[in-house]
Amino acid sequence: MSTAQTANTTDAQTDPPADQTLLRIKNFCSWYGDYQALHDLTLDIPRRQVTAFIGPSGCGKSTLLKWINRMNDIVPGARAKGHLSLISDSDNASKKELDILDQSVDVVALRRQIGIVFQKPNPFPKSIYDNVAFGPRLHMRTTKAELDELVEWSLQKAAVWDEVKDRLHGPALGLSGGQQQRLCIARAIAVGPEVLLMDEPCSALDPASTLAIEDLIFELRSQYTIVIVTHNMQQASRCSDRTAFFFEGRLVEAGDTTQVFTKPEKKQTDDYVRGKFG
Amino acid sequence: MSTMPSALTSQDPKYLTNNAIRRKRLSSWFYGLCVAIAFVSVLILVVLLAAIWAQGQSRLTVDLLTRAHSELEIERSGMWPSIIGSLIVCFVCAMAALPLGIATAVFLEEFKPTSKPLRLIHGFIQLNIANLAGVPSIVYGLLGLTVFVYMFNVFGQIKVNESPGLEIMGADHYYQVMTLQPGHVVFVPQEDASVREIEITEPIEAVDNSGNRFELAVWKPGTPRPKDEATKRQTIEEGAIGGTITRRSWYYFRLPLDKSFLSGGFTLALVILPIIIIASQESLRAVSPSLREASMGIGATTWQTVRHVCLPAAIPGIMTGSILAMGRAIGEAAPILVVLGATVMKGGGPEHLMDNAITMPVLIFNWAGRQQNEFQELAAAAIIVLLVVLLILNSTAIIIRQKVQKAHN
């Protein structure tokens, strides 16, 4: 399946083919206590592409991201209504659609399928090796050699192996911010997720580290579906295939990144991407 | 452009107080005051220690550390049983309070319930723990007396030479009988604990002091009396009376706990439980939420997150709180006085689980209240020993904590 289309080569195409949809969001609303954070969202997220959520602070983009792997479960008073499902095996005739919001969903298994990388690099105060091995140790029983292999593979995938291979058992907190963030990405992919959610992964990093992460995102999308929340519009335009613009808890516009940035349909989107507000 | 406020632009001298010198002087005065106050509190401590040292240093002898309290040889009285007693009571206290306290803190901080009734219970427990920390320790002593020493009398009352309560293990009951060899006793195993005395008329199975079993022969008056010592040691006069005697193994256990060191340790555990819970909660709360998110985000369960992320990060703080709490426990006299009594007549440490113990604060309390000058000096010397033991325990714990911290980072 060749879905690795880059932002520059795709035609203006608003909806991805239905069979490529991985996450289906329909009439989705969410609340924190009495405050409604998201209003009636409908959005499909395609498989093995990078989807960027953009919008001003407090527009609900992070909230939606955290519903996708149910991280909002640990937020007191958070609740949601509507439809949010994960469609696995689109190649297969028997597509399985998993209702993410269902109370009976095994969130442990769900979060293994849908990994998340946070805004601030948050490695555990353990060694680099133990950070990456943390997830695999929770979920599977491996031999030492298999675990070593998995750790190396994950660190290589996250483009940080060369920098840390000589100090795998040194403290993770001794790494630079950008290295820590790539370590967190390695930690997330070490459990074999299908989807990577990234909540402003570069906002705490310097420009060089940001570039490294963006390159990494570009690499990873051939294997993973990536959803990235960002404040940085250049970042969205540089590394995403599709862009969804949120404003005050509503989805204003979603579409191909080139189209959203060059020929937006809504005036609000146009104002935002041109930097008139936000 | 709006004009600037007149306070900033005006050259009028009324705005220029130029009090920089006065403000700086005030600041340095306040600095001096704080240093002086800090010195006063240290000075009080130093004076106290010096006074105790002056009074007690002549009694800091080997006898003090190795001998027991003695009414006959006051000057050779020692505190060995109380050192052992204090350490054992503290050990029991730590074993009881640490798991309970840390588990409660984990429940309160990490397993916050979502349903309404559970949230109410959660809030209720939280409120109570904050209140319990302020309850005077003698109140815990009375609680310990009811709950551990008597256990509400549900297992029967313990009475000397009558009822031992509900014995669970480690007790062997015998009848003790005199043999024909003067001064030699043998033991006949007891079958029915309610029979307090037996009269022996028939040969019967018996045990001697070293545990050998043999058939106890009966000598009828009027028949020839055995002559050799070995036979006399295994023979009794017909109709000899045997009274109950109990042999207790170290694991002797019964309910209620009565005035045992276990009761003392558990009562002290109640005293320090709120302190440990609050300290553990504080240090769990200090663990960055981003670490919890990271762990949950990879699909760890709440327990896995607690076990592998929160507890390791919180352990140094939990240990600090626990060290402080143990320091308080080892110095508590009031609850121990209520639970174990003010007895100081004991030759050594506890011999079995249900044995009494004396602790250092109780011994000091007893000695300090005596008329004799020797006891006053001994009390001062015992205080020095107590402080040294505390210091050793605390520094060991701090060293362990730093090792743990280093291993963790």
Describe it for me?
The complex is a heterodimer of chains A (278) and B (409). Chain A is an alpha/beta fold and 278 residues long. Chain A has one domain: P-loop containing nucleotide triphosphate hydrolases (Rossmann fold, 3-Layer(aba) Sandwich), CATH 3.40.50. In chain A, 33% of the residues lie in helices and 26% in strands. Chain A contains ten helices and ten strands. Chain A has helices spanning 61-68, 107-113, 128-139, 144-157, 161-164, 177-189, 207-220, 233-239, 257-262, 267-273, and strands at 21-32, 35-46, 50-54, 78-88, 96-99, 114-117, 195-199, 225-229, 242-247, 250-256. In chain A, 47% of the residues are buried. By secondary structure, chain B is of the alpha+beta class. Chain B has two domains: 63-153 and 258-408, Orthogonal Bundle (MetI-like fold), CATH 1.10.3720; 166-254, no CATH class. Chain B has helices at 6-9, 20-56, 62-66, 80-110, 116-132, 137-150, 229-232, 261-285, 289-297, 302-331, 334-340, 360-368, 373-408; strands at 166-178, 185-189, 197-200, 204-207, 213-219, 235-237, 240-255. In chain B, the strands form two sheets. Chain B has a four-stranded antiparallel sheet, with no helix packed on it. In chain B, strands 4-5-6 form a three-stranded mixed sheet, with no helix packed on it. The radius of gyration of chain B is 32 Å and the shape is elongated. The two termini of chain B are 56 Å apart. The interface between A and B is medium-sized, with 29 and 22 residues.
Short précis:
With 278 residues, chain A is of the alpha/beta class. Helices cover 33% and strands 26% of the residues of chain A.
Low-pLDDT residue spans of chain A: 1-16
Instruction: Please mark out the parts of chain B with pLDDT under 50 across 5 or more consecutive residues, or reply none.
Output: none
Structural class of chain B, by secondary structure, is: alpha+beta
Number of domains of chain B: 2
Q: Proportion of β residues of chain B?
A: 5-15%
